[in-house]
Specification:
The protein folds into 2 domains: 2-60 and 259-296, no CATH class; 66-222 and 302-407, Rossmann fold (3-Layer(aba) Sandwich), CATH 3.40.50. Helix content is 42%, strand content 17%. It has helices spanning 2-12, 14-28, 38-53, 121-128, 153-167, 180-192, 217-224, 227-233, 252-262, 264-280, 283-296, 304-316, 360-364, 390-407, and strands at residues 66-69, 72-84, 87-94, 105-109, 132-138, 172-176, 201-205, 236-237, 248-250, 302-303, 326-327, 330-331, 341-347, 373-378. A 9-stranded mixed beta sheet has the order 1-2-3-5-4-6-7-13-14, with helices on both faces. Strands 8-9-10 form a 3-stranded antiparallel beta sheet. A two-stranded antiparallel sheet has the order 11-12. Helix 13 links the parallel strand 13 and strand 14. The chain is globular and about 70 Å long. The model has no long low-confidence stretch (mean pLDDT 91).
Length: 409
């Protein structure tokens, strides 16, 4: 019912949105002789705010056309090299100045936690400087027909293993946030099977490997609420006309509300500054605001089973760090990993995955040699700063790059 009401609200706002868009065009037109007056600029800013609040934020484009290598802009090629109803494996590659050099293959496993994989745009651009980059581009569950069946935590792990093999050579896997536990599951089973395409290395960035450590507000919420509460309050049915009609999902708009409520004042202040910048005609600031929120407000739905199994396995019963997790009838013991190097990256100000939760991967992978381990905690960044932004580019990425280079065959 909630999903249908949300869609009805969007449809009912269509006349208001169209009127606001028309007003924005009229008041902002260069042909309007009063376009630069204070009153008209405020009318324009008000119309823009209404149009933005009532529009649909669809899946963003990757917008990665070039990357700077050696001080030169090099064209980027994008292609889908593997796919399922639930995910596309997207490859980003460049023609490097030294065409004889084979760049290490890196699989960036994007989080499936509300935002699209394009949230990692800056991460991809960083890794492209030195690597052949593959990214998991997860589907919006509301767009997957119900005939395609379920997609849960263990299906995620199977997808990761399948995509590692699809790359066709031993790759380096980077798990950003949520994928940490299922990536570790996939790597463990590939190591146990002595799979010739098992990863050369694993890097976990802000991942809840052991959510019992340094619990944050989201961790405490998941722990304090009974499992039945999540079943009853967070799961809703996809309405027509979506392809996934009747599929039970954790809606993206519900997740978005959770994101926004965690830092409500910060977002309110950002939108007020945006309004003032529109009035002042500060195009650079307004463009930066739009780019950020066009991405931040674009969300996808998660399947019921994936969301609930993640709550149960990762945030309530802590099965992986307690050594109690089984996958398709097989016990998952990361202690079997011996020749896959491991790096963990955390932010001291991370309010989603507290310091120590990611480091737990070192304890679980107890038989990885000390020379093949790197543990890094950045002293100032928060959750998103671990994989994006200036500190990622200047401080974190160089360390991950060097870690990977030292393990490249």
């Amino acid at each position: 019912m909630l999903y249908a009401m949300h869609e009805a609200a969007f449809v009912s706002a269509t006349p208001l949105r169209l009127a606001a868009e028309a007003a924005r065009t009229f008041w902002g037109s260069g042909l309007n002789p009063a376009a630069e007056s204070g009153l008209v600029r405020r009318l324009f800013a008000s119309a823009d705010a209404i149009a933005q609040m009532t529009r649909r934020f669809g899946k963003p484009a990757w917008r990665i056309e070039t990357v700077e290598i050696g001080g030169e802009a090099v064209a980027v090629t994008q292609e889908t090299v593997w796919s399922s109803p639930w995910c596309n494996l997207v490859r980003f590659s460049v023609q490097r100045p030294d065409s004889t050099a084979d760049a290490p293959a890196v699989l960036l496993v994007a989080p499936l936690s509300g935002h699209y994989a394009t949230l990692l745009r800056g991460t991809v651009q960083g890794f492209l400087q030195d690597h052949d980059v593959y990214v998991t581009d997860w589907a919006n569950a509301r767009d997957v027909q119900i005939i395609e069946g379920r997609f849960g935590f263990h299906d995620f792990a199977d997808h990761v293993a399948d995509m590692i093999r699809a790359i066709g050579r031993r790759a380096h896997v980077v798990a950003v946030c949520q994928p940490g536990p299922p990536v570790l599951v996939a790597a463990t089973l590939m190591a146990e099977d002595n799979d010739p395409l098992r990863p050369l290395s694993m890097t976990f960035m802000g991942s809840p490997i052991d959510a019992r450590l340094s619990p944050t507000k989201p961790n405490l919420l998941a722990e304090q609420r009974p499992f039945a509460w999540f079943q009853s309050n967070m799961i809703h049915t996809v309405p027509p006309p979506y392809l996934g009609t009747l599929r039970r999902v954790y809606p993206g708009f519900v997740q978005l509300y959770s994101f926004l409520s965690m830092n409500e004042k910060q977002h309110v202040d950002a939108h007020y500054r945006h309004f003032e910048n529109l009035v002042a005609g500060d195009d650079d600031s307004t463009d930066r605001h739009r780019l950020f929120y066009d991405e931040y407000l674009s969300v996808l739905d998660l399947t019921e089973e994936f969301y609930l199994e993640t709550i149960d396995i990762v945030f309530q019963r802590y099965l992986l760090p307690k050594g109690e997790l089984t996958h398709r009838g097989r016990r998952v013991d990361p202690g079997v990993i011996r020749d896959i190097a491991i790096m963990t990256v955390e932010g001291a100000n991370d309010d989603i995955s507290g310091v120590g939760q990611t480091q737990a991967a070192h304890t679980l992978c107890s038989n990885v040699p000390e020379d093949d381990r790197v543990l890094y905690v950045h002293p100032t960044v928060g959750h998103y700063g671990v994989f994006n932004g200036r500190r990622f580019r200047d401080d974190i990425y160089p360390r991950v790059r060097d870690f990977i280079a030292a393990r490249q065959l």
